[in-house]
């Protein structure tokens, strides 16, 4: 199999890179935090330029658009570059995805806008959803890599930013469901209801959502709070969503409220697992009484 490059080995990136290794790819990887994050059987590169000199296709898993743009530039301008395709699995927003695609296109590099949803557990189980947008030629070239990242993939368009728009809508709904479920469970607990029983009934009723089915049973009621996704990243994603909505002149009444809540949570407890929003909401209720 051809060598695949990987830049960004955090919780999600490390799991995705490991999937490529498990499927038989030779993976060359780089993370600014150092070689300790490199998956077993993958090779560590000293910098992004070395990745670009080694791999035809490079996958990115980075925290935001500024970092994606910086890394894309380093790939494009690397001396002796071999890379001809970049797959960006980061959540960077519509505008940043277009900037990255334009930058790469100026150097003859194809770009696939390919954010992911499903969490670190989903990445490890290969149930992660990859939503991607790219021209036909790019899709044909990177599909083998996408297939080895996850078993669930959906092409949603041809233009950069289209997959980002869908990912932002998805994360806004996820953020809303988790915050709203946190309030509902806090209300039920105050009324004397058992939270586990509440979830059983909600999941058999019209209030069912991703938080009641997954986040609360696995991470909140267990007290584990270990989904692998930070509250600061969720606050960032909701802010990107609101910025994109504002550019389009779309409705944002609910979004503004949700964005403010997540920003307060991220400011109060920066970097904690986003499922801890339940504790933040409960504490806010007690404080306001």
Helices and strands in order:
Elements: E1 4-7, H1 11-22, E2 27-30, E3 43-44, H2 48-54, E4 57-60, H3 65-76, E5 85-88, H4 94-105, E6 110-113, E7 116-117, H5 119-125, E8 129-133, H6 136-149, E9 152-157, H7 162-190, H8 195-202, H9 210-220, H10 231-248, H11 253-268, H12 277-288
Parallel strand pairs: 1-2, 1-4, 2-3, 4-5, 5-6, 8-9
Antiparallel strand pairs: 7-8
Helix pairs in contact: 1-5, 2-3, 3-4, 7-9, 7-10, 7-11, 7-12, 10-11
What attributes does this structure have?
9 strands, 289 residues, alpha/beta, 3-stranded mixed sheet, 6-stranded parallel sheet
How would you characterize this protein structure?
The protein is of the alpha/beta class. 55% of the residues lie in helices and 12% in strands. The chain has helices at 11-22, 48-54, 65-76, 94-105, 119-125, 136-149, 162-190, 195-202, 210-220, 231-248, 253-268, 277-288, and strands at 4-7, 27-30, 43-44, 57-60, 85-88, 110-113, 116-117, 129-133, 152-157. It has a six-stranded parallel sheet, with helices on both faces. Helix 3 runs parallel beside helix 4 (94-105) and helix 7 (162-190) packs across helix 11 (253-268). The longest helix has 29 residues, at 162-190. The chain is globular.
